[in-house]
Amino acid sequence: MDVHDPQDIARAQNELLREALGRRPPPPADENDAGENHSLAPYARTEPRRRAIALEAARVTSSDVVYDLGSGDGAVLIDAAERYGCACVGLELDASLVKTSEEEAKRRGVDDLVAVRQCDLTRVRAETLARGIEDLPPPTVAYAWLTGGGLSRFSSKLREAWEVGDFRIVTCVDSLDACVDFERDGAFAEHIDRGWEVHRGKEAAFGVFVVPPKSVSLEKWAREERAC
Ligand SMILES: C[S@@+](CC[C@H](N)C(=O)[O-])C[C@H]1O[C@@H](n2cnc3c(N)ncnc32)[C@H](O)[C@@H]1O
Q1: Which of 66, 68, 71 should be mutated for ligand 1, with most atoms under 8 A from CB?
Q2: pLDDT digit string (tens) for 118-167?
Q3: Residue 171 is inside which H or E element, if any?
Q4: Distance (Å, rounded) from C-alpha 11 to C-alpha 27?
Q5: Where is the DOT1 domain (predicted)?
Q6: N or C: which end of the chain has fewer CB within 10 A?
């Protein structure tokens, strides 16, 4: 073993852990294979102040199409539609939350801007996500507040979609370059490099992380922030 290879050390560490825990089976190799567990996160709203910071950090404008990946009760979508007048699309596993979102969007008078689809993100194809779900326009902003484990499991599909499409990503609490699935990667999982380059601006202090669109470098994104 090369003692200087951090991935080797991480793997060996997890091997020791598995031994200590009674040799649990190694995680499935295919990150897109959701197995029996299709839930990437339980339902909870993003705290409203963090939500506002996240939408601002993503530099949302009226011409954007904001996708909320796991949209819960639609609070992010409704907030974005009210504040910025942009089109919003929610993708949500739980049909009752889809219904709640639609009713609330209607009650708040933004149902012309907000569309929500019942959908399992672990099943949707990356290309479909990038090009737009069904008849809906493609995302220019993808918002994701999932657990670290959920984000980690969804990371490779999101990456594929990000490479095909043209959108920036804003995540809350966990960042794409450091999220870890402790179930899959081991309880002392160390950093797993999936190639994401994440902007850590002033919003990072509030647990908000942005990945610029693939056509914009981190440096350019940061320069634009300073200019604002
Ligand atoms: C932490 S909540 C975030 C809700 C909302 N985005 C917000 O920030 O207020 C995560 C949401 O993802 C949904 N979710 C979990 N797994 C999913 C999947 N495989 N496909 C679609 N939605 C999923 C959950 O039902 C839940 O509503």
Answers
A1: 71
A2: 999 999 999 999 999 999 999 999 999 999 999 999 999 999 999 999 99
A3: strand 168-172
A4: 12
A5: 43-105
A6: C
